[in-house]
Amino acid sequence: MGKVLMKGNEAIGEAAIRAGCLNYFAYPITPQSEVAEYLSRRMPEVGGVFLQGESEVAVSYMIFGAAACGARVFTTSSSPGISLMGEGISYIAAAQCPAVFVNIMRGGPGLGGILPSQADYLQATKGGGHGDYKLLVMAPASVQEAVEMVMQAFPLSEKYRNPVMVLGDGLIGQMMEPVEFPEHLRTEPSNKDEWATNGMDTRRSNQRNLVKTLYLVPEELNAHNLMLKAKYEQMEREEVRFDTYNLDGDYQVLLVSYGTMSRVCRTAIDNLKAQGLEVGMVRPQHVFPFPHKAVYEAAARESCRSVLCVEMCMGQMLEDVERSVAGRRPTSWYGKCGGEVPTPEEVMQAVKSLSLKS
Amino acid sequence: MGKTFARPEALAETITHYCPGCTHGVAHRLVAEVIDELGIRGRTVGIAPVGCAVLCYNYFTFDFQESAHGRAPAMATGIKRVRPDLIVFTYQGDGDLASIGMGEIVHAANRGEKFTTIFINNAVYGMTGGQMAPTTMPDQRTTTSPFGRKAAEVGMPIRVAEMLATLQTPAYISRQSVIKPKYITKARKAIQKAFTYQMENRCFSLVELVSTCPTNWGMTPVDAVKWAEEKMLPYYPLGEFKTPA
Questions:
Q1: Confidence class of residue A188 from pLDDT cuts 50, 70 and 90?
Q2: Any idea where the domains of chain A sit in the sequence?
Q3: For a Cys staple, A257 with which of A55, A265, B53, B170, CB 3.0–4.6 Å?
């Protein structure tokens, strides 16, 4: 299969099937309803499960139930819907079940708007629901990358027995781009018999499995949380992923940006280069774990005078960027939230307004 | 003469955490007996609610998932849709099912999900400490209705079995009780029917069990049985509200 022109949301649905995920539960919400529409037709073709739940809350528990009995399963939603799923996601993380959640972000807070946004960064990367847990969060910047990340998300969720979130802004879901699907994922789901409630007969076992999140003994709950923490630390060691742009030369400004916003930044960087101002960029592809070291090293380069975090929200990733730069360089934010994607000219203006004196 | 009464294989040998006079133990045993009788222990997955029965998996010897408040029917949906060969049941109390989980149970029942729900109605929240439930009786005192439940303020108790029986899709809706032996025999029969219908791939089945909660009712176990029979059974009549066509 060569390149096809496909809408992001439909490509995400197809990618899941090609990753061997034949179970999808969802609730409609703009701007990602096309995933459900696509899969309502496609899942029956491949003998998969499609079910429209009565609410995002219920969907998150359909995912939990299916994941807990060992099935590869995923859902898609958008910001207000992800908030509702936050309850279930906390339980799934606590119960250590693999599952994939796609958030095609729209503007918030509240109903906000239906246009692209990156305002769920903190919710996605710092937990989102109650309790101490983290998601591995992948942030695609194109339809092609969304497809690849969705396909990688399943084995990663199984490696860590933890939910993985693919965090795309509304543009990733809504725009059409040429996309080439990788070969069908050949990895078989990991051995789930040790923990999944898939029926003792399935496992030929006399030992029952129990999937639970209640630990009434304080020492046991603390130990459980320490074990979860160790997993998140392993992710920080093994799953940092980022891309760089124009970092070879003597750049004066470092941009940190992800998703669609990072593509606008690339254009701004090219234009500024033509005008004689060198600007580099680190683009986190995984926003948890965050590429702290890469951002620090890029910021600490001798030529670099200032760091600018550009995002479609009021400065959420900025917290991670500031933490990475650790005071080594002045660090500021530029962005918009409400559905407007900042233009290259606006990003250029924001860069030019920085004080670049050494 | 062999053994005539033994612990079912599906029931664990352990000490109960339930209060004296609580009827959860009876309901657990009936479920376990039916699972043994139908020979389905190796392919059954139970789902525990939030409430006193959150720990019910401690008493069963087959696969179990623990749900969040009210969400057990959504979890059961997830399991049954991806593994239709498994036998799945939720075990839920009235705060769990009839309050916070009302949406999930109604939609699962209406979709005709092919699992079974055992619904314990004891007219009160148990584990959280005796607060008012949607099933609390008129004028019944609870820790959040200290002057008695006033219908003018919070409405009348919800009759879950009758309400779900208005839906076209469910296969079997029954209300029984576990407060006295004469009711327990019928309750066992109803649970056996519910699981059998599931094995026949029929749509949703629910057995509501009128139960007691002496601790939160502030009564002795004996008085609790009397109260349930006199106050609850007239309002919550026993019987089958929906059977397969």
A1: low
A2: 4-238, 242-352
A3: A265
